[in-house]
């Protein structure tokens, strides 16, 4: 059998043959604490728990054969329709062979399943602070088979009943309401749902409750029990009231707009340790990474980000859980909608009214990058198997899809869009859908032909570029303004765009403000915006003003010159964010020298009012310095950024979030002895910046550059861990330890990640982050050939999540030479038969490296021209 990597063809064949009536799952988790028969993960095998699953299902062709999915170290017993089967004969490690099926069947599987340390399946975490054990499950796309036997594909939905025996004193949560009877937690049967959104959370979690109440349009009173939980060690930091506030606002918003009551009873939200994702939409029990509980001071951008994730997962209760895509090809039917609805609800229901600025600046940046990689794909993707599915949780499926839906709302109208959603829920509740099912209801409600729109926006890949062309008459007025549309050779589709074109000029007071605006349908290579003819000559033309469409935009020469001198005078925050985004794309495309982008950040970022945009500018400036400037200018650029960051840090309002953002950025670029001495002084209390509270999280942010430059040694880091002896502190210490500039340290970190599987997923991530330091390029050079020698073995031996972390995180991007590009090409040529998902990751990393080399050449050429 092909094994773990279920193909789309196999799933379709099984769905045509089988229909599932229900699951009963019993888990005995008492082995999670103390000594277990299998012991801890060791040479003797992993720590295991007992899993007993009963599946009742029908077969359309009696006498046919199929299989159930299970990944487990051992199967104790299997029975099919009362007949005992030999586990050694029917179970191959990932599938249970089922032969001679009846019309009605009952399968019972008794297995020993393994606790996970990679965040896949049933993850077991031991809190170093108090020794308590915490469990949670994470399955998407196909890891529920690590916990119980099932048919692991989204279109074989069924009701689930869970029973869990846990250690004494623990609480257990699942999708349904649970009660403890005779030492066993029994949970109410769920509605028909897919296997990947079932969930179990168990342990001595801190739990807070609330209630949501609402009277529906028909007069029915709806009451939803709310819960929020986290590790006991984080309870003192847990602002559950704010989580509940956003939750209630979101439930109000979606009830107002969806006309379909929340269908899954209770609504618990669990913040869990060592989580690989941002969050997961398990109905009735949403799981989040616990980093959304803030241990120190953070900016409002962090609270906005958390609220957006809460609302994104809530939107999934309808888009994804109630109505689910048939196969992962149509993953966008849940993720694109949740990404769009999260921002839509954020602006419409919460205090974060500038959410569309964040969307334009952050989410679209993710989409633009993904859409220019060699692995770009249509929003409706071709997903051949589960490995493809795992990698398709990307910027196209999420952020590009959400951007396109934002356009669709403008195209069909908000009322028609929402009415289409309401019909979609009612027509397909608890079922599975494809693209055509959604288009059908939108055609009904809008009266528009959705086929052409879908072909242009959903079924083709790539991003278009729009550039203004301004012709002026002798009197200084516009005689013609056109928008030029281009597409890359690899994806030549020119799409229809509804855009706003804004004209800006400076006022007498020096502010750069819009004085004219027109909307136009851009279609084809050149579109004239007739409405703007006769307008006064602009200093800045902003195509895609108000961010109506998904595209890269460019500036004409006059506009770029204006921004070089007056970007800080642009008063509208969304327009300013869009201009920054354009400038960053120009830098990445090697059309603007990276040192020019850094200069713009140094001159104008200090005047940026939106904290989320400011933090994005810090990240972009850091990337420009590390990857895009000419190598010979890096040291100069680093000194300039550090000097500018320190200036802004000292000038920022004491205690403000802008001060905090500049402090964190200063730490990332500090390298000169005086700068490192200041960081040491701030840690020791011998130096002070008025209003700056150096809390525990900021202390670790300061310690990493000190460790990376050899100033903070192992003892200093051990002392800091003693001060912060928590799970979070341990992750920070591991990152800082791996950051030290020592060949022995790098060898140890490499061995821990690549040659051993002893570290948990969170500590693998922390070690990689510390290992890769831009100031240590020569120290890391020997690991480039080691990387190419190891990755195929790593991919074969490790879980897909850990494999992705290693292949992405350890690619030798800091060895930014043609030789590294050649070595990457040589590996790809020699490994044409490697797993497609592995090749995709390497191709993406290669593309980033090639882009960096082009940008460096642009930067060097501009510097050379200036010298001449």
In words, what does this structure look like?
With 868 residues, the protein is of the alpha+beta class. Helices cover 43% and strands 20% of the residues. Helix 13 runs parallel beside helix 15, helix 18 packs antiparallel against helix 19 (696-708) and helix 22 packs antiparallel against helix 23. The termini are far apart. 50% of the residues are buried.
Give the fraction of residues assigned to helices. 40-55%
Query: How many strands in all?
Result: 28
The class by helix and strand makeup works out as alpha+beta
Terminal-residue CA separation = 66 Å
Keywords:
868 residues; five-stranded mixed beta sheet; single chain; 28 helices; alpha+beta
Please describe the topology of this protein:
Elements: H1 8-17, E1 18-28, E2 48-59, E3 66-69, E4 74-80, E5 83-85, H2 87-90, E6 95-98, E7 104-114, E8 121-126, E9 133-138, E10 160-165, E11 171-174, E12 178-181, E13 184-187, E14 200-203, E15 206-215, E16 221-230, H3 240-258, E17 267-272, E18 279-280, E19 285-289, H4 300-316, E20 324-325, H5 332-349, H6 355-371, H7 386-391, H8 396-412, H9 414-428, E21 432-433, H10 435-446, H11 450-457, E22 465-472, E23 478-486, E24 497-506, E25 512-522, E26 526-528, E27 540-543, E28 552-553, H12 557-566, H13 573-588, H14 594-604, H15 611-628, H16 634-651, H17 657-669, H18 673-684, H19 696-708, H20 714-723, H21 727-739, H22 743-755, H23 761-771, H24 777-780, H25 783-797, H26 800-809, H27 818-830, H28 836-867
Parallel strand pairs: 1-10, 16-17, 17-19, 20-21, 22-28
Antiparallel strand pairs: 1-2, 2-7, 3-6, 4-5, 4-7, 8-9, 9-14, 10-13, 11-14, 12-13, 15-16, 18-19, 22-23, 23-26, 24-25, 24-27
